[in-house]
Amino acid sequence: MTLLLSVVFVALVFEYINGFHDTANSIATVVSTKVLTPRQAIVLAAGTNLLGALVGDAVAKTVSSGLVDATYVTSTTLICALLGGIIWNLVTWWFGLPSSSSHALVGGLCGATLASAHTNWGAIIWARHLGGPWYKDEGLLYKVILPMFTSPVAGLILGFLLMTSLFLLLRNWRPRMVNAVFGKLQLGSAAYMGFAHGSNDAQKTMGIIALALVAGTQAGTLDQVPPWLEFLRHPMHHTASGKDVIAPWIKVMCALTMAAGTAAGGWRIIRTMGHRMVRLQPVNGFAAETTAATVLLVAARLGMPVSTTHAITTSIMGVGMAKRWRALNLTVVEQILWAWFLTLPMTAVLGYVLRRLTM
Fold first, then answer.
1. pLDDT at 247 over 60
2. Which residue has the higher pLDDT, 62 or 170?
3. Which one, out of 37, 114, 178, 326, has a CA that is 20 to 30 A from the CA of 302?
4. Calpha distance 17→20 (Å, rounded)
5. What pLDDT does 130 receive?
């Protein structure tokens, strides 16, 4: 029982770190364009992240039941997975690199589960049978690996197209008028981005907590819980329509934790995304935020735990390319790309090693 509660605690620590690590995803552009002060932007991001986290649970259900075989998942497995993600998030935060918390969590989960399964790869992709998720529209291939590449590409292309369209529409406007109008519009796009961030990122930890409690119920760990902890026995809520959804108490707890983490801020990454990569004006910030938020909400609707970081970063890149190719700081872009490619394998190794050390 203590170990199970430890999973919930470590999951919430991950959620908190995710909040301040990914704050830049929601507010870097609105801060860099000086539409809002950093403090005002954080308040906006925290509020909209909270609302977004309470809406939907498709991503949470993917994490809790669509990525690994729960047969091989124990409380220790989940703690090791979360610790792997936490370590990577803190390392990349320290260096100011906007890596993906989503992929950090998925990589840690896969590595730790593989260690628990003693190199049984079926535990990761369920490909031992023709009907496994590797062959269906679910599982690692369709829910993580393909979106890992398609969502950044979508952000880059759509950001470029939207910014190019705005340049054509606004070519006869005076710069002061453009800044005044889009300074107001960017308030809406920043809120949209915060909502989309919450709707995708907060759900991943919801899925981990639900997975831990379902595994605990199956193992009989929760059979003798005291009355005041009875709610732990019901991580999934059965609706009138017959569908199982993540229990409301898990949603609220994760949403509040992410909002608290968001309120703590993440200034190192904000500086990288808002200033070092490309210089932005309000119209550029509006285009980048609108593009990234749309990509995230579509992915959340499809139950894909995609990277908020990848979506907003490539959207900013696309917007910068529409201004001019040389507007991008390619040295910073290269550092970000390396962080992206290393996240999944490094967190998988961390999760694997940590789990093996506990066996």
1. yes
2. 170
3. 114
4. 5
5. 33
Q: Is the distance from CB of 57 to CB of 75 less than 8 angstroms? A: no
- Please report, rounded to a whole number, the percentage of residues in the chain having pLDDT higher than 90: 14
Kindly report the backbone phi and psi dihedral angles of residue 174, in degrees, each rounded to the nearest multiple of 5, phi listed first. -75, 145
Q: How confident is the model at residue 23 (pLDDT cuts 50, 70, 90)?
A: low
**How is residue 71 written in tokens?**
């047969």
Long-range contacts, stretch 227-235, CB < 8 angstroms, 24+ apart = 232/4, 235/209, 235/210
pLDDT value of residue 165: 94
